[in-house]
């Protein structure tokens, strides 16, 4: 039976909201459930790449995918793979024009059927790389912090998503990261997001947890480093929701 590949995109206009951590944790948990997963690091800061492969200088990166349609895939562990990023990707967005909004989408046709999920970790910027990613995706998920600045940037994130696809695609889900339920601001932000975005707000809250930073320092995904910590438990719930939204089942 052929694999029906589902392409997920994690994006927020604001940096520091946990896109790379979420990409790594989601990919690792999906892989542990038997899904074959390809991570694609589209950010020149390469945080996802460093998290999964360490700080080594990558000779081939996602730049090769955009320029040549090839995938320099590296295996992380069973069922989990990555196309790395690096500093060379920084200038890519400026070299692309509006006639090249679907470079990534066309390239991804070559790996569809090989993976259950492709996860795109976007840079925190509005540019042609982000537009390519959103246009390539089946589902767009948006991590957000429980603060006013992050909430305000949600509108910009939504506008980017709509404009990138000519109004055909909207967000698939919004979820809170680094969440502290005891703070009044957290409760206020939950209500604001509910009021503005309704059912797009997912049930899962990724609680603030020191193990997340420790895992990044250790160059491991959260499930390899601290599978029983609160954030890991929350990411299990998030993946449950993603599987429900995407209607994905392991054959």
Which helices and strands, and how do they pair?
Elements: E1 6-10, H1 19-32, E2 37-41, H2 47-53, H3 62-68, E3 74-77, E4 80-83, H4 92-95, H5 103-108, E5 117-121, H6 128-136, E6 139-144, H7 148-164, E7 173-179, H8 184-197, E8 201-207, H9 210-217, H10 222-225, H11 230-246
Parallel strand pairs: 1-5, 1-6, 2-4, 2-5, 6-7, 7-8
Antiparallel strand pairs: 3-4
Supply the CATH superfamily name: P-loop containing nucleotide triphosphate hydrolases
**What's the main sheet like?**
8 strands, mixed
Question: Any idea what the CATH architecture is?
Answer: 3-Layer(aba) Sandwich
Structural class: alpha/beta
List key phrases describing it.
single chain; 251 residues; alpha/beta; Rossmann fold; eight-stranded mixed β-sheet; 8 strands
């Amino acid at each position: 039976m052929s694999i029906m590949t589902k392409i997920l995109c994690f994006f927020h206009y604001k940096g520091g909201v946990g896109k790379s951590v979420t990409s790594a944790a989601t990919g690792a948990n999906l892989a542990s459930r038997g899904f074959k997963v390809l991570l694609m690091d589209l950010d020149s800061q390469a945080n996802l790449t460093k998290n999964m492969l360490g700080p080594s200088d990558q000779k081939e990166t996602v730049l090769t995918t955009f320029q040549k349609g090839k995938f320099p895939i590296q295996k992380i562990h069973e069922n989990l793979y990555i196309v790395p990023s690096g500093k060379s990707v920084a200038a890519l967005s400026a070299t692309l024009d509006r006639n090249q909004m679907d470079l990534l989408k066309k390239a991804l046709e070559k790996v569809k059927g090989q993976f259950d999920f492709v996860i795109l970790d976007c840079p925190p910027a509005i540019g042609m790389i982000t537009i390519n990613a959103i246009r390539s995706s089946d589902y767009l998920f948006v991590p957000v912090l429980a603060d006013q600045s992050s909430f305000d940037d949600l509108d910009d994130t939504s506008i980017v998503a709509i404009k990138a696809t000519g109004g055909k695609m909207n967000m698939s889900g919004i979820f809170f990261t680094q969440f502290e339920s005891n703070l009044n601001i957290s409760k206020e932000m939950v209500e604001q997001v509910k009021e503005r975005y309704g059912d797009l707000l997912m049930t899962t809250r990724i609680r603030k947890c020191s193990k997340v930073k420790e895992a990044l320092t250790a160059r491991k995904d959260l499930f390899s480093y601290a599978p029983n910590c609160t954030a890991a438990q929350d990411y299990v719930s998030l993946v449950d929701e993603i599987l429900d939204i995407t209607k994905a089942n392991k054959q």
